[in-house]
Amino acid sequence: MTPQVKGDAAGERGEGARGDVSGPVWGTLRARAWVIGLLLIPLLVFWVEYTESVAKGSDLAAMSLPMAVVFALLVLIPANLLIKRYAPRAALTQAELLLIYSMNTIAVYIGGIGMMQFLHPALVGWKHFATAENKWANWFRFIRPWAVPDPSVVPDYYNGKSSFFTAQHLTGWAGAILVWTAFIFVLLFCMYCIATLVRRQWVENEKLIFPIVQIPLEITRDGGASPLWRNRLFWLGIGIPVVLESMASVHFTLLPTFPYFPVKPEASLQLDTGLTAPPWNAIGYTVLAFYPLVIGLTFLLSLDVSFSCWFFYLFTKAENVGATAFGFRDPGAGQALARIPYISEQGVGAYVGLALFSLLLARPHLKATWRRAFLNDRTVDDADEPLSYRTAYLGLFASALLLIGFGVALGLSPLVSVLFFALYFLLALTFTRIRAEAGLPWGQGPWGLSHGTLVGFGGTQAFSSQELTAFSFLRWFDADWRCLAQPAEIEAMKLASSTQPRPINPRHLTAAILVAVVVGSLAAWVSCLGIYYHYGADSALVEPWRTAQGHYSFDELQGWLNNPKPLDAPRITGAVAGLLIVGALSLLRTRFVWWPLHPIGYAVGNTDTMTWIWFPTLLGWMFKTLMLRYGGVKIYRQALPFFLGLVLGDYAISGLWALYFLATGLPGYRTFPI
Question: Is position 273 within any domain?
């Protein structure tokens, strides 16, 4: 299918777009929305950094619906309704509320794990954790001085009882902050260009459901005066997680004798503890959970996607049991046989395969965008795109060249830099596609992501010591994708086109997102470094997993250098098998309407995404299946507010408890993920 031409069904362009040659009519975005959005960014970013790094509370950013931003939206809505009652002209519209939401989602992602929380420890950890015994000094000559802060600022970062806002610290960090802020901007802009080029294909041609956007879209209708707030089932849904999460918070932080219901994975819910004999012990860590938000989000998914996600997760367990039963794990079987069935490698192949098949499916659309961009084909309309197609392509080419050049400047060869970023964006495209169809509360990419796949499959001997060192300084954004920005970028585009009564001007959205990237990056630098210079990264006052990112990259690097390995053909075979299976599943879905297995479920099932959420996903799928089978679409629609309430109730009470722990200084109960 090709993009819409002028005058063709302008369903998402607003009034005046239906065949009107004057073009789309956009909703008004007043200055107050921009000001509120920008003022909230440093506030929410600091809340995220302090809660996750010092208060050790729930992850406020690392969610498909970032808790900090959803909570802020839940505060803005009643305030806006009050203004709407007494000064209706001053109240924010749905478009303005969603602009604020989109700006802050991107900003808090930059401050989250897999982004800024991993970046600044890596820039100082190489110096702090080096000892004569670990021999890290052997690769110090490969480090680019312009990419790291001055070594004189490192001791106070770890010792604390200081301030980032001193002349020495500010000047010592200035160069690194400038370099990596520019890198973050170019990286996210490259993602934005890609999202622009696939937006119409996914939103209008394939009509992907984008489950995550349904929550902010529904609660902001009519400036927050949504009928949802008057639905009793909705409030019943809210009440369940409010009670359950409050009971757990009281039990784990205030009164250990207080009863609670186990919502999160814990020892009492672990299934594998009773399976100690082969082959059943090969099932590995398998645990139940009852996250209300997961059950609620799953209710929004298509049944084939939700079924496939939990089915393929359990199928990987069966694969491991089968491999053990057939003797592949017996002593002396050999390393290649012991890794059968290569679950992680199948996941890599599945991700690459899904990206390639998504691009293949979009080929007619992409051809049309190319004609518009470079052949000036006026039958292809890009007036309602966040960027013109020409700008999107030129931006993609320019940002990709800058990223490749940055990799080369860090120490990668041109070919390796091309391979690294090409693989990164292919995997990121699949991760984004999974969010658009599966809408899971959080996600994990395939094993190793880009740098780990290149080194693990190609072997360390294929890369120089300089290249391996460069990989270690790129690992921070290629280790944990729960805060990957591209899904949020295309979701912002979907929100912009869905607001009522008129859509957001997508070019205004683009400006807002790009400004949010800059402000969010600077806010994250100031918040993180301010916190660590005050408390000290070596102090017991900060959360240790985040500070440990300062040596994880370099432990991995030293392992590569100490134990050089050749190309790993079995791993490559496992990845090829994953790619072929995704191809077969995609073909079967197009040929047989009744085929129940979705390739996205296979890709998700072969990563760590479902480890904690497979059971609530199964429950959500089961509830929806039963309602549709015995009650039909009417009952499903009537029940939908209840499940939306499960999601919002979980977020609202978790945000309130996070604020309580922040105010009291008590160690916070982590409502989710675990």
Answer: no
